[in-house]
Amino acid sequence: MDHSHMDHGNMGDMPGHGGHSMPSHGDMCSMSMLFTWDTTNLCIVFKQWHIRSTAGLLFSLIAVVLIGMGYEALRAGTRRYEVIMDRRIDSTPSDIITETTPLAWAIGQNKAQVNKRTHLVKAALYALQTFYAFMLMLIFMTYNGWVMVAVTVGAFLGYLVFGAHTPVNKETQCH
């Protein structure tokens, strides 16, 4: 129910409000649960990311595009790390180091140790990707058409730039 037409100017004088005044409805974040193109009082994820002007909207849309591209960059970086580490694990000696072991591996670890560390880093990258995906989902769930388009453009440009060797269907959903 829209109460924006009501005068709340003297709410601070009401008993039980302890002199606290209510903020003006003119500067509050709108929270639409329906698709809209309206950008009046649009906030993206945080109340501090409050769009109050056309310039603010444009900068925010560019930021959302860059965030979407960043997600694709993270995915590409993770895949690159996995390929590099899989090759390294395959070339790592399985057994105890001997005098015939190359010098580079003599100061390193065996396959099991490298695999454990690699798995830990992969798990951390996976957690970061999951967090990033959910944050993008929250941005998308502003239900604002401009923001939705910016997320989609970011995904497109990110895949175009970073996803050259990635199948399109590989884990693109949030979770």
UniProtKB/TrEMBL annotation:
Keywords: Copper, Copper transport, Ion transport, Membrane, Transmembrane, Transmembrane helix, Transport. This is Copper transport protein. It is found in: Membrane. One of its GO terms (cellular component) is membrane. Its main location: membrane. The keyword Heme does not apply. It comes from the Eukaryota. It is a multi-pass membrane protein. The chain crosses the membrane at residues 55-74, 120-140, 146-162. Belongs to the copper transporter (Ctr) (TC 1.A.56) family. SLC31A subfamily. InterPro entries: Cop_transporter. One of its GO terms (molecular function) is copper ion transmembrane transporter activity. The keyword Transport applies. PANTHER family: COPPER TRANSPORT PROTEIN, SOLUTE CARRIER FAMILY 31 COPPER TRANSPORTERS.
